[in-house]
Amino acid sequence: MKKKLNLIYLFPAPNKIYPIRDEQFIIEELVNADQNVIIINNNYFIKMLYYVIIYRIDAIIFSSLNIGKKINFLLSRINLPIFWWYFDSANASVKRLKRVNKIAPNVKIFFNRDKINFNNYIQNGINSVWLDQGVPSIINQKIDSASYNYDVGFFGSLSSVHKSRTKLLKKIDENFNLVVYTKDKKQFRKLGFKNVKNYIFKDQIPNAVSKIKIVLILNSSCASPYYWSDRIHIMIGSGAFCLTEYTKGIDETYINQKHHVIFKNKDNIISKINYWLKKDNERLDIINDGFTYAHKFHSYRNRVNEFLEHL
Question: Closest Cα to residue 110, out of 124, 95, 236?
């Protein structure tokens, strides 16, 4: 039985774009694991000092790089274990990597997925542990659909780090009935995409993917061995048939042609989509196997149990 701990979790306050933060799924599972969690999502510096002084705190957790910047002065001065569970890639920019290398040496464990950086992190005195994200608890159903509105779907953004991804999507849009769910609706429409819809939150995704035959999981420029978007867990856990761009390690997380279908060659994406559009029964088998597997082995409950093993 795990010891009950008094934990402080620092995370940004929810807003219109992020009405529920991923940290809240983690906190929910920490509480389910019989841990006591004190939530701080504003005035981090002052409130953290208050709780550390007044209460018997066992550890502090944060996920945001911006919060790490705000409290970095205190990290090496507080006599408590501090854990940074970082969701994003440090390799998005040189500036971000420098900031990560400045903050991470001051925490006990830096949980992240940039395995490609681990040797350099060791040289910088950073104790890194690979830890993935997972399927949120608010995604708890698979909606079976008798009819589809779209051949292909994509959920994601349009930004400077995703230029090659946008080019591939445009090619797919020209050949299939593609729908894009995004925060960048105007930009996608400006590029001539036919079906562009507003970003939807995670609890609405099962209904959306039930109307799409194939959901694309595409890498960003930050993708590297064992680093991929949490979108893979969200989509498979929502009951989507996923055509997933390969990155090393993803085939160990979800089995190819059992939980999803992996592609390596972007030049063959059109023929790959055409092939799987015709395989209705096979797609359904993969959807069912993937959904069950995602919730059994890749939920945030699984991730939190892994996390607690290190505390």
Answer: 124
What pLDDT, in 10s, does the model give residues 225-252? 999 999 999 999 999 999 999 999 999 9
The secondary element (H helix, E strand) that includes residue 62 is strand 59-62
Whole-model pTM: value is: 0.94
Residue 197 in tokens: 């819809």
Nearest to 181 by CA among 160, 202, 161: 202
Find the helix packing angle between 163-175 and 269-277, rounded to 10°: 50
Closest CA to 277 of 215, 216, 217, 214: 214
Asked whether the beta carbons of 198 and 181 are under 8 A apart, the reply is yes
Long-range contacts: 30-37, Cβ < 8 Å, 24+?
A: 30/304, 30/308, 32/301, 32/304, 33/2, 33/301, 33/304, 33/305, 33/308, 34/2, 34/4, 35/2, 35/4, 35/5, 35/7, 35/308, 36/4, 36/5, 36/6, 36/7, 37/7, 37/8, 37/9
Q: Distance between CA 243 and CA 272 in Å, rounded?
A: 9
Chain-centroid distance of CA 264 in Å reads: 21
Whole-number Å distance between alpha carbons of 185 and 190: 9
Tell me which H or E stretch contains 209. Answer: helix 205-209
- Condensed to tens digits (0 to 9), the pLDDT of residues 128-175 reads 999 999 999 999 888 887 789 999 999 998 865 567 788 899 999 999
* Phi, psi angle pair for 294, to nearest 5°: -60, -45
- Domains belonging to the chain, first-starting first, are 6-131 (3.40.50.2000), 150-297 (3.40.50.2000)
Instruction: Look at the alpha carbons of 182, 228, 91, 104 in this order and tell me if their dihedral is positive or negative.
Output: positive
Q: How many CA atoms lie within 13 A of 10 on its CB side?
A: 29
The secondary structure of residue 162, as a DSSP letter, is: G
